[in-house]
Amino acid sequence: MVYYSTIESNRTTAIKNQARNMPPKAKKKEENEDLGLMKAARFGRVKNTLSMGFVGLPNVGKSTLTNLLVGAMHAEAANYPFCTIDPNVVQCVVPSKDFKYLAECYKPPSVVPAVLKVTDIAGLIKGASEGAGLGNAFLSHIAAVDGIFHLVRAFDSDEVIHVDDSVDPIRDLETIQGELCAKDKSTLVGVLEREQEKVRKEKGLSKQTTNFKLSETFTSAYEKALALVEANTPIQTGEFKDSEVEHIRDWGCITTKPQIYVVNLSQKNYIRKGNKWLQKIADWVKEHGGGQILPVSCEFEQNLFDLKDYPDEQKAFLAECKETALKAGLKGNQAEVRTMIPRLIRAGRQALCLQSFFTAGPKEVRAWTIMKGTTAPQAAGVIHSDFERGFIKAEVCAFADFKTFHKGESSMAKIKEAGKYRQEGKNYVMQDGDIVVFMHNTTTGKKK
């Protein structure tokens, strides 16, 4: 039996300032430093409204899990207008004990949590990169999201037909990864042609001229990226210098996106925390550049969700699951059976290098989404563009300090008395969970 808690890749928590639109750090960044989560995110867009997308073969559970992501978290803020943006795009509430604590403390009429946008992308099939099925449309949908939940099926069921007539997660991983890499290989052909044409124009050469060199940085970036996709390995897992990343960022390659591997197990295997495929999947992921693996069970999550309005029955269901786990030989925390929905949402946010800061008052408690490495003026601009333009300072309290010192009061009075209420300037880099008031010297006009 393979316990799935042992197969998740180690992930560093140190996230570096964004590569673009950020002030330079006092100490020059080394080219070969460990970028942690930023290793993939550095290729992406610098935005606060990034999204994840479910990718996989047909009938692996993408739509079910997408619906569970948006539905299961309604309790986080009952008055938040949850929505399906269109038939395959949803916004799911980001679970946060800190945000919930603030909301319960201030008890405002308006509570607005952070959300993560998730797209349910229709199933790919073999040959999609060459237009098989609706492959080109599906691949364009993948290109439109900023990160990927790669969902793979590892459960048997006579009721759910597999597109290839048998369950083999490794084959499925090869199929999807192969299609994504094949699409990027095709993209790289166009990248090379465009770069060659650009250099010809710069040097005044004819279209027939071929005996000229491209820049060393472009060439090294291109060769590394091509070698990776030819080995069926995502580009984002490779080692690149910052100067090479600057080139790759503009190429539009799908496999530069952060990717989380999600394994859909049967309820039985999820409860017992074991499956014959898990170790094989872990080995495959390691061989293809590594990545985070999250086991889930759509069957279990759906059964749990269906009892949301019957708390006693839901509690009994979880107790029964725990009893099954104990009989399977699990002990202590290993025998506890919990939903993976909150963890999945948080993992998506972390993969995109997103975090939250809070504004809190008697009228509203709100979580605002920013990228890790965002400065105080840029964070103010998320609330309103005028706040960034006329930024004076930020009055900041760390959530941990608020919780320790507020003494039950829904105000910052006790935090100020404790000396934990700070004033920060333009170079302050926002921390996850900061509670902030921005001071600015502009009148509020229509947001740009």
From TrEMBL:
Gene3D superfamilies: 3.10.20.30, P-loop containing nucleotide triphosphate hydrolases, TGS-like domain. Signal peptide: none annotated. InterPro entries: ATPase_YchF/OLA1, Beta-grasp_dom_sf, G_OBG, GTP-bd, P-loop_NTPase, TGS-like, TGS-like_dom_sf, YchF_C. GO terms for cellular component: cytoplasm. Residues 50-316 form the OBG-type G domain. Pfam families: MMR_HSR1, YchF-GTPase_C. Keywords: ATP-binding, Nucleotide-binding. One of its GO terms (molecular function) is ATP binding. It comes from Pseudo-nitzschia multistriata. It comes from the Eukaryota. The keyword ATP-binding applies. The keyword ATP-binding applies. This is Obg-like ATPase homolog. The lineage of its organism: Eukaryota, Sar, Stramenopiles, Ochrophyta, Bacillariophyta.
